[in-house]
Amino acid sequence: MTRALGLQLLLLLFLVGTTGHAYAQQVTIDVHNHSEHMAACVVRLEPSTTDNEPIVFSITAPGTQSVELPLGDPWTVEVTADGRWPDSAVVVPRDGIQEHASLDLWPVGTLTATITVDTFEPMPTSLRVRFSGPHGVPPIPGFPEDEVICPVEDDQMRCTLPSGKLDLRLRARGMVSHYRWNQAVLAGATTDLGTLKLRRGASVTGWVVAGEGRPDLSKCTLELRQLGPEPDTSVSRQARQRGTADTRGFFHITGVAPGLYTIEAQLPTLGSARFMPLTVMEDAESALSEPMVLRPPATLEIEVDPPADPWSRPWQVTVRQQAPVSSITVPVDDVTKLGTGRWRCARLERGAYEIRVEDRDGDRWWYEEAQVEAGSTRVGHAHQTQQPRPATDYPHRRRRTVPDRRHSRRPRGDRGSYQRPALRPDAVGHLKRHTCRRSHHCTGDEGGDRSRAQ
Length: 454
Prior knowledge:
The chain is mainly beta. It has four domains: 23-105, Immunoglobulin-like (Sandwich); 107-198, Immunoglobulin-like (Sandwich), CATH 2.60.40.10; 211-293, no CATH class; 298-443. It is 4% helix and 51% strand. The strands form seven sheets. Strands 1, 4, 6, 8, 9, 10, 11, 12, 13 and 14 form a ten-stranded mixed β-sheet that branches. A five-stranded antiparallel β-sheet has the order 26-27-23-32-31, with no helix packed on it. A four-stranded antiparallel β-sheet has the order 3-2-5-7, with no helix packed on it. Strand 2 (39-47) and strand 3 form a beta hairpin. The longest helix is centred in the first third of the chain and has 17 residues, at 2-18. The protein is elongated and about 90 Å long. It starts with a helix and ends in an 11-residue tail after the last strand. Mean pLDDT is 76; it is low at 4-21, 230-238 and 375-454.
């Protein structure tokens, strides 16, 4: 019985061998040393499951080592050495595929700073230090970008970082961050940042970039405007805060109260950009998810025909900018009336806008969504003739009770209420489509009829 079972196992192994499939695959581990001196390091391979045991071996960097790993499950490969920044990678052994794990060892230096806080403010026990290569410089292949926790003892912060030129962000929980750009960290030496004064509060950070040319970004000004309690409310002019960008285009506005904001960047020689909505939490740092791109401004021109409502009163035209990913809209302040039935909005940025035509009673007669494209080069005044629907077709238009003497010369309904006359399509003329163009005379989007009543 035992002999028969053994023969069956041998036959199974033979069949598996003849199919060309294996249970393990060789993985090559390359360790690069970015230093003049060789380093004795330890490589540890950690399995993702408990079915396999960790593998640990020593190697001299730079060097290469091959190991056999079971198929299917991922392994974490980590290399450590004295005076070097550790590195790690993940490999997944697959049948018939030669896997490589490339690891880099960088020499380290020590970073120190003296920490001070306001009176009655507790001293933090640690700071989070985020580091990366210098902004705007081509990255060095394999150079680490990470965040480490640096302990604070007796108001002294101390930790190790990869040596080289680094951009640093140092932050304690609930405190405003400190930034150091292009900071040199020397290998095997101590770099002191001096005294860092920590203050509690919220802040807003981000970047501005030029859509064209190479302007001086340090002349770019930023303005935070707090939005009202509801998404469709106008901007509160009392809750504004200003800041400036540096030569790189980075800005850091501190002392911001919690709330919902829109932020606008302006550069007189180029244009403006707006980001919204931006949520600021208490004692937190809010970073813009993408840079604000400054582009030449555009002009939105609106022409309404007929130029007045059925009661010979001029129309009320409002323009609101739409947020890219939400229902929030922000009013455009600069809506200039040029003449009879004509309006203009100058110095607009690229984006989506709402155009509303209302009478003096606040009833909406026309609504249109316009896509404003800054920097367009199309020339001319292209427009599309469209006829607004009669007033009675709008669901929100209803009979309104008014004093008889106000409309003594106009028809009244059966119950003493005034029924507004409906506009006839053949009598109202048309509403010319907007024209989006540069300050010079470049036309904008000429899409189809997207008008709708709300």
